[in-house]
Amino acid sequence: MNLDFTSILPSLPYILRGIGVTLQIVALAGLLGFLLGIILSLFKISSIKVLGWFADIYTSIFRGTPLVLQLMIIYFGSPQILGYQIEPYVAAVLAFGLNSAAYISEIIRAGILAVDKGQSEAAMALGVPYRPMMLNIILPQALKNILPALMNEFITLTKESAIVTTIGVMDIMRRAYQVGADKYSFFEPLLLAGLIYYIMVMTLTILGKVIERRMRRGD
Fold first, then answer.
1. CA distance 171 to 115
2. How far apart are CA 15 and CA 21, in angstroms?
């Protein structure tokens, strides 16, 4: 093997600038997925069958098809469907957010069902309306229980964000690929990109464990 990182290191700051792009996409997509996930999870446990069917079909579609396909449909299909080209950054946030919502909805639904039924029965006996009961009593308890699963979803989202390079978003992977093309050597910059992703994932993992410990101490 003939590895030469000395020629790649001057381009390291250029690759590192992709971290900001990656984190922005992940943060916005995660927020979108979380909000939609809450709505879908409430649809799934709703007594209104149409809402439950809609949520189940949504989850089935986004969990049953490749994420890269969803990304390409949103980006390359937007001119035909909407009449104008969506920006790559916006397409990435939408694709990851909509996909993540399907998984998060199942996580939240399981968390809600895991909350002791006595909580909701007591709230109903006291005359607490459904919406305040869910927002102030059930959901806070459910979120505390599902925090590790939500953190794993966020970590997965961070790793999968690398596929945005396929539509030209200037993330870590895209910049590493450009450096490789410029230097006629792809192995070294891709290894650096892998190291950056690894450090990001390990940081998020440690952060998740810290938050989980603090929440347990607050019990």
1. 40
2. 11
